[in-house]
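Risk register update: the risk of archive-format incompatibility is retired. Evidence:
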Amino acid sequence: WTIRGGVERGISRDEAVRRLVKFHRLRQMGRDWPEPIRHVVVPRMKHPPRADGVIAPGEWDEALSFSGEYPISGTRLDPRRSRTLWYLGVHDETLYVAMSCEDKDVRAFSKRMFESTESVYLGDALEIFLRPDVDQPYYSEILVNPDALVWEVSHKATPSGQWDVLDSKPETKLRAGGKRTAGGYHIEIAIPLRDLKRSGPFRRFSFQLIRTDRNGKDEYRAGVPTPLLYDGHNLYGYVRAEFAGR
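Archived output:
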C-alpha cells in the first residue's frame, strides 16, 4: 500500500493488514503442523478396474485404500464423511484411482478454466495431484467430476511456494467414469504413467487426492484421505509412494 502524489495506489491499508494477518496465521500453522509425511506402497493389481464409474464388488480389493475424510489443514477425521472411500492401484504401467462418497446434493461444474466461478474444482469433483519424481518440482493436477468430465493440468512449483501452469489440456485422452447414485457418486479413472513421467522410470513419487464439495447452500469444502496442510499445491505434504515389486 503506497501513496503517491496524495493518491492511494494498490490495496487499502485495511486490506494490507488483513493479508498480513492471514500470512502470519498460515506461517504459524506451518510451523506447528504436527503430521508426519505418510509413506505407502501402491499394489500391483492382477485385474485392472474397468474405470467406468461403477465400483463393482471385489473390483478394488487388490488396491491401496483409505476411508473417511480429513478437512484441509485438519488432523481429525470428519465424522460426517466416514463413508468416503479412496482407492489406488497399478496395472501394466497404468495407475487406477477411484473414489466413492455420499452427497445429497451433487453439483458438478464443467468449466476447464481457472478464471471462472464454475471451474471443475469449485464444484463436486475428485482432484488427483501426482508428483512423478519427489526430487523434481513438476506435478500434474487431474480433475474429474461426477459426470466423468476430465481436466488435466501440468504445474511447476516455484521457490517462492507458488506454482506456474505449464500446460492446461481442455481435451484429454484419459479414460474416466462417473456414476451418480441414490446418495452420492462414484468416480474411477485410468492414468497411463508414461504420459506423466518426463524421463526415466516412474517409481518414487508422491500424490494427494482431494474431494471438492459444493452443497445446495453454495458452501464449499474440501477433504483428503490423509492430513494435508494448506491445499493441493502443497506438494511437500503429499503422500510418498512407491509401487510394489513385480
